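Our preliminary data section would be incomplete without showing what the modeling component actually yields. Below, a chain of 246 amino acids is followed by its predicted structure, encoded as tokens that our downstream tools consume directly.
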Amino acid sequence: MDLRPDELERYDRQIRIFGFGVEGQKKLKSAKVLVAGLGGLGCPAAMYLAAAGVGKLILVDKESVDLSNLNRQILHWTGDIGKLKVKSAAEKLRQLNPHVEIEELAIEINEDSIEGLIKEVDVVVDGMDNYKTRFIINEACVVHNKPFVHAAVYGFEGRLLTILPGKGPCLRCLVPSEPPEVRPLPVFGATPGVMAMLEVIETMKLVLDIGKPCSDKLIIFDGLTMTFYQVKVEASAQCPVCAKHK
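Predicted structure:
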């Protein structure tokens, strides 16, 4: 997959990175990434994935833009209130980078839809705000051997784990059962922005096959102390997903 002259100029700064180069950019151009949810995590993640030149972004979110979204969901603006989130996000992303193919799916992610959503993608990026849906995505990714870059936020805190099926723990190894959900979720707008950037870096590493994915440790970000912690995570023999799909 060749790069046009304007693409070479657009991506010049990252192409210059040692180990990235033109071949790396071609890998990005041929990649397909699913962004599951277009909220505080999914919006900035989709924006930077598009800016980096991922060939195809599949955006999935069934909801419409609400005023209370606007402190953190940066692809949605005041004039977008009431509009489907996939439409609002796709409009901005196409303006940002017309070379990226954007697919908009205003559907619910559930047991019936998930297999068709992930079947042909290279990486799934977590933009959800609940563990029920995350668990559905996690199990489908384990079954179909798809990398799942997970992040979650609360207040000034964020957490990150990359799931590589068969090579490390899955989300249910870390969180065995669905935790109680707080609604509405308290969150400072920049917190999901921080975690989304980490998700994008992990996604780029997976597509390019460079570096070491964050697949054996949970990264915890504490914005109040500006500290990152690492907690080792191992596959669990009692995991309700890994054990079932060995």
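The longest helix spans residues 190-208. Strands lie at 32-36, 56-60, 101-105, 123-126, 148-154, 157-163, 217-222, 227-232. Preliminary results of this kind motivate Aim 1 of the renewal.
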